[in-house]
Design brief:
Layout lengths: L6 E5 L9 E5 L9 H10 L8 E4 L6 H8 L4 E6 L2 H14 L4 E5 L2 H6 L9 E6 L8 H10 L3 E12 L11 E9 L2 E8 L4
Parallel strand pairs: 3-4, 3-6, 4-5, 6-7
Antiparallel strand pairs: 1-2, 7-9, 8-9
Length: 195
């Protein structure tokens, strides 16, 4: 994506920041969710985003978290382990003049094993789009469930390589939508209560 050392851009496709373009760091290998998939995802989420607390665990470009904020989410926590990515996310939050973006520099596992930030309320919507080369979806789903990160009927978005099997999900997670687009497979899950 782009030449090393160059910036690419992403476009927010809906809400108050519709058509705003934000830079992303191409040399970090960030792979933003495509406009087409994002449009499908946020159609699935229609009616759930406004006022929601969202977690974008492998934020990368931050496009899912910023898209949610653009559409009325109350909070988006964006987590990434790459300091350069985090610095760009912070700059983009300043550009958008939003205080609803909580940007955290941390590895996903460490974040999930720590305390819930902010006022400790669980998340209503979680975006999980880890690097395809890393097999992290199953572990992250288990930690989200076990460590108290999810509201009772939270929605969880999973994106992965379509050539790999989806991980086993916690028993009371229900698949609401399931699609593929090229090499990307993506699902929307609803948590049904829990223990």
């Amino acid at each position: 994506m782009g030449q090393p050392g160059k910036n690419s851009q992403l476009r927010i496709i809906g809400g108050q920041w519709r058509s705003r373009r934000l830079p992303i760091l191409a040399e970090t290998g960030v792979r933003p969710t495509s406009d087409r998939i994002r449009e499908t995802l946020f159609n699935w989420l229609r009616g759930y985003v406004e006022g929601a607390r969202c977690l974008d665990l492998f934020a990368g470009s931050g496009v899912l978290g910023f898209e949610a904020l653009s559409r009325g989410a109350a909070l988006a926590t964006l987590v990434d382990e790459d300091l350069r990515v985090v610095q760009q996310l912070q700059q983009n939050a300043i550009t958008l003049d939003t205080r609803q973006a909580e940007i955290i520099w941390q590895q996903a596992d460490d974040f999930l094993l720590g305390a819930i930030p902010g006022n400790g309320q669980p998340y209503d919507i979680v975006f999980l789009d880890p690097p395809f080369r890393e097999d992290m979806l199953g572990r992250c789903c288990a930690l989200l469930e076990r460590c108290g990160w999810l509201a009772d009927t939270a929605l969880i978005y999973l994106e992965s390589d379509s050539h790999r099997d989806f991980p086993e999900l916690p028993l009371h997670w229900q698949v609401l939508n399931d699609k593929k687009a090229g090499h990307v497979a993506y699902r929307l899950i609803r948590r049904q209560g829990g223990n």
